[in-house]
Specification:
Blueprint: E1 5-10, H1 13-24, E2 30-33, E3 42-46, E4 49-54, E5 67-71, H2 76-87, E6 92-93, H3 112-122, H4 127-134, H5 138-152, H6 157-167
Parallel strand pairs: 1-2, 1-3, 5-6
Antiparallel strand pairs: 3-4, 4-5
Helix pairs in contact: 3-5, 4-5, 5-6
Length: 172
C-alpha cells in the first residue's frame, strides 16, 4: 500500500523547504514541494498562515473538505499533527489564528475563553457539560454562551455554531 502524498506549496523557497523538512520527519506520508494542481491527498499552503487542505472527491462541497488552519509560527509537531488529522478526514482550527470570512460581516473578536466555549458548543455540549470540561460553573458557561451569541449575531446556539463553522472560528 502506498503512502499518502502531501504537497507543500508556497512563494518562499525557504519556507517551503522548512515545511518539507518538518513533514519528512514522519514516515506516514510522502512529502514534496510542488503546486496546488499536483495530485496528492493533502496540500500544505504557506502564506500569512498555514492551510492544510485534504483531497475532495468530485461534487463534494468546499465546506466538507477536511482542512486545517494554523498560524505561520506553528511548530513542526503541530504541522505534522494537522496534516495527519486532515488525512484522517478531520478539520483543525488553531485558536490563535481563526480568520473571519471575507464575504461575511466582521464580528467582535472572541476572547480565548469564549473560543474554548465555542468549540464545546459546536460539539453539542450543554452549559453544565461545558462548565465541567472547563472547570467553571454552569452559570459562567451560560454567560460565555450568551456573549458568543451576541458577538456572532445569533439568536440560538445552532445559529451560532453555523456562523462559527462558516467563518472558521470553530472546526468540526
Amino acid at each position: 500500500m502506498s503512502l499518502p502524498r502531501v504537497i507543500v506549496v508556497g512563494d518562499s523557497p525557504l519556507m517551503v523547504q522548512g515545511a518539507v523538512a518538518a513533514l519528512a520527519a514522519s514516515d506516514e506520508w510522502q512529502v514534496a514541494a510542488g503546486l496546488r494542481s499536483d495530485p496528492a491527498e493533502a496540500w500544505v499552503l504557506l502564506d500569512d498562515g498555514i492551510t492544510v487542505l485534504g483531497h475532495a472527491d468530485d461534487g463534494v462541497p468546499a465546506q466538507h473538505v477536511p482542512s486545517a488552519l494554523l498560524s505561520a509560527e506553528a511548530d513542526p509537531e503541530r504541522l505534522r499533527v494537522a496534516v495527519a488529522a486532515v488525512l484522517q478526514g478531520l478539520s483543525v482550527r488553531e485558536h490563535a489564528w481563526a480568520p473571519q470570512a471575507v464575504d461575511g460581516p466582521a464580528h467582535e473578536p472572541l476572547t480565548a475563553r469564549e473560543l474554548e466555549v465555542f468549540e464545546l458548543l459546536g460539539k453539542g455540549l450543554s452549559n453544565r457539560d461545558i462548565g465541567g470540561v472547563l472547570g467553571i460553573s454552569a452559570h459562567t458557561a451560560k454567560y460565555h454562551v450568551a456573549q458568543i451569541l451576541a458577538k456572532v449575531g445569533a439568536a440560538t446556539r445552532a445559529e451560532a455554531v453555523r456562523e462559527g463553522l462558516r467563518s472558521g472560528l470553530i472546526g468540526l
